[in-house]
Design brief:
The complex is a heterodimer of chains A (250) and B (361). Chain A contains five helices and nine strands, in the order H-E-E-E-E-H-E-H-E-E-H-E-E-H. With 250 residues, chain A is an alpha+beta fold. Chain A has a single domain (16-247), classed as GHMP Kinase, N-terminal domain (Ribosomal Protein S5, domain 2), CATH 3.30.230.70. A five-stranded mixed β-sheet of chain A has the order 1-2-3-5-4, with helices on one face. In chain A, strands 7-6-8-9 form a four-stranded antiparallel β-sheet, sandwiched between helices. In chain A, a hairpin with a 2-residue loop joins strand 2 (38-44) and strand 3 (47-58). Chain A is globular, with a radius of gyration of 19 Å. By secondary structure, chain B is of the alpha+beta class. Chain B has one domain: Ribosomal Protein S5, domain 2, CATH 3.30.230.70. In chain B, the strands form four sheets. Chain B has a five-stranded mixed β-sheet. A four-stranded antiparallel β-sheet of chain B has the order 11-10-12-13. A two-stranded antiparallel ribbon of chain B has the order 4-5. Chain B is elongated, with a radius of gyration of 25 Å. Classes of the chains: A alpha+beta (250), B alpha+beta (361). The interface between A and B is medium-sized, with 31 and 31 residues. Chain A: Its main location: cytoplasm. Chain A: Keywords: Cytoplasm, Exosome. Chain A: Residues 22-150 form the Exoribonuclease phosphorolytic domain.
Chain lengths: 250, 361
């Protein structure tokens, strides 16, 4: 999709009217599915993701007997993109995202508390418009919190890109926060996830080429975005907790 | 996901026998206290995904949840060979090729199951059968002689199926199809199709009329029977003792005005039976109970050979211990079940009325 990114420098507004450091609207719900142990629904702009967590349940511990296995299933619905496209489970991009999510939570959850058991994270992508991996990580965090599985802190993720392309030597290029599909197709971008509100980066994925000098700025913006996302997710969890207390479901 | 338990029944022969007796008493006593034609409560949401042509989500009270998204693409129709007469002019019958079954693609995804597992394949086959049965549906996808809409129906079951998911998936698909909209066609006849880019001007796949009755996509209902008692929307426990399980697909047609004059005014809907399938009840896989006469622990004598044991089972009095059902569905029973669905004031009418209650945005 051809996209004229040069218009950015004129008004410093992106195609959807945001400034460089603005997130899209993030809304989330937790405990959306009563039959699962934990579930969440997250929207980041037009990216919509559902996550359900089952477990920890018996079985597993095949890799390490002293800690729980984390199994991630990711299904991208055929109707999620602009064109209808079926993505199989063996798709390379899908399995890469699955292994990223799996290893992230393996190091964040206290899996040693559940030896010989399995935690299933099942993710459904209903609609995609950029920052997919970030949305999946955020939704998984919420569902795992809903399931009551102890973890070190929130894993929150966001994406960051750089406005000028690889070839142009424009040093004053602004980094952008939270990219949508058309921006992702046009610009170099990275996905970053941090632990809690800290600067500890737990995921950093970048598949495009960018000048090394730009990386620092992008990373700084991404980490800053993660902090904003954490505040939003924390509000969601607290709001849900208040509701549960009020309704006396405990 | 934990291995799917939906197909296994973890009930003892004594529990099965208890369920069977309570369901075969008249009126049947169902484990959740419903009447025989009562459905479980559900929550429906429509138009949840703006990126699709139509979408719906339904949550059943037992926690199972499904999402259906409908997406349409314009596709070039396959060139057809026409019979040519001596002058070399093609004679194309007006009606021919107005709808082909390949214009619809339906796939069902169930967590923890592969795409080629028997359950999703069977469910997809049953639902597309109902959709394509009368050939009316594919006609709606016709644009002109050279182009048609290709419709993709993606059905996602989000949770583990706790009972047979067919009614859930079918109801969700029904709502999604009811909301499916296409952009309005601006071009004429056999031109390359050009569409109005104003989404507010789009047209429904199933156009609504101001009167109550209009064409509706099919709904597939699950009906089961135990000992002559017919029950709707069976739960997992009830299915585990079912003798006959039937999937009945019903469609509704709008009623022409002159038809109204002729038909007596009592009937409010023109329901049509589209497809019926028997489903192998899972109760066949259960273990039979051991009657006292065959149990050494209770003073009986166990049969020494397996032939003898099965011979004794055959002659055993009905209703003493649990026995998996044998034989197929009786014809009069199937007829009674279909009758119960279709009759005036029957379940199908009630379901359609219930679906009318869903806010279609």
């Amino acid at each position: 999709m051809p996209l004229d990114t040069s218009s950015y420098s004129l008004a410093l507004l992106r195609l959807d009217g945001r400034r460089w450091n603005e997130l899209r609207r993030i809304t989330a719900q937790i405990s959306t599915m009563p039959s699962a142990d934990g579930s969440s629904y997250l929207e980041m702009g037009n990216t919509k993701v559902l996550c359900t967590v089952t477990g920890p349940c018996e079985g597993g511990g095949t890799r390490d007997r002293d800690r729980a296995d984390i199994r991630v299933e990711l299904a991208i619905a055929g109707f999620s993109g602009v064109d209808r496209k079926r993505v199989g489970r063996g798709d390379k991009r899908v399995s890469e995202m699955v292994s990223t999510i799996q290893s992230t939570f393996a190091s964040t959850l206290f899996t040693n508390l559940y030896p010989q058991s399995t935690i299933h994270i099942s993710l459904h992508v209903l609609s995609q418009d950029g920052s997919l991996l970030a949305a999946l990580l955020n939704a998984s965090t919420l569902a795992l919190i809903d399931a009551g599985i102890p973890m070190r802190d929130y894993i929150t993720a966001s994406t960051a890109g750089s406005t000028s392309s690889y070839s142009s030597n424009d040093e004053s290029a602004d980094p952008l926060l939270d990219l949508n599909t058309s921006e992702e197709q046009e610009l170099p971008f990275l996905t970053v996830a941090t632990l809690g509100g800290s600067d500890q980066v737990s995921v950093l994925v970048m598949e495009t080429r960018v000048q090394a000098g730009r990386l620092e700025g992008m990373l700084a913006v991404g980490v800053d975005g993660c902090k904003q996302v954490r505040e939003i997710l924390d509000d969601v969890v607290r709001e849900h907790g208040k509701e549960v207390l009020k309704s006396g479901r405990l | 996901m934990p291995s799917s338990m939906s197909q296994q029944i973890l009930l003892s022969p004594a529990e099965l026998s208890y369920l069977h007796t309570s369901l075969s008493s008249s009126p049947p006593i169902r484990p959740d206290g419903r009447s025989s034609t009562q459905f479980r409560p559900l929550i429906a949401e429509t138009d949840i995904l703006p990126g699709t042509n139509g979408s719906a989500r339904i949550c059943f009270a037992d926690g199972t949840e499904a999402i259906v998204g409908v997406k349409a693409e314009v596709e070039k129709s396959r060139a057809r060979y026409t019979h040519a007469d001596e002058d070399g002019e093609g004679i194309v019958e007006e009606d021919e090729g107005r709808g082909l079954n390949e214009w619809v693609e339906l796939c069902v995804e169930i967590p923890g199951m592969r795409d080629d597992d028997s359950m999703p394949v069977f469910l997809a086959a049953m639902m597309s059968e109902a959709l394509l049965a009368d050939g009316e549906f594919t006609r709606r996808l016709y644009i002109n002689r050279r182009f048609h809409w290709k419709l993709y129906l993606d059905i996602l079951l989000l949770s583990q199926p706790s009972s047979y998911p067919l009614p859930l998936l079918s109801l969700t698909t029904h709502l999604a199809l009811l909301l499916t909209k296409f952009p309005r066609l601006k071009s004429e006849k056999d031109e390359d199709p050009l569409f109005d880019d104003d989404w507010d001007a789009s047209v429904f796949l199933y156009p609504r009329s101001s009167t109550k009755s209009f064409d509706r996509p099919p709904v597939t209902l699950l009906v089961m029977s135990v000992n002559g008692n017919i029950m709707f929307d069976p739960s997992k426990e009830e299915l585990s003792v079912a003798e006959v399980v039937l999937a009945v697909s019903v469609g509704e047609r709008s009623r022409s005005e002159e038809g109204d004059m002729v038909i007596d005014s009592g009937k409010t809907r023109d329901l049509r039976l589209l497809a019926v399938r028997t489903i192998d009840p899972p109760s066949r896989l259960t273990h039979p109970g051991v009657p006292n006469a065959l149990n050494t622990a209770t003073g009986g004598s166990a049969a020494d050979t397996s032939e003898k044991a099965s011979g004794q089972r055959e002659t055993m009095a009905e209703g003493s211990v649990w026995q998996p059902p044998r034989g197929g569905a009786k014809r009069h029973q199937i007829a009674a079940m279909i009758q119960k669905v279709l009759e005036q004031g029957g379940v199908a009418e009630e379901v359609m009325a219930g679906l009318d209650g869903v806010d279609l945005g």
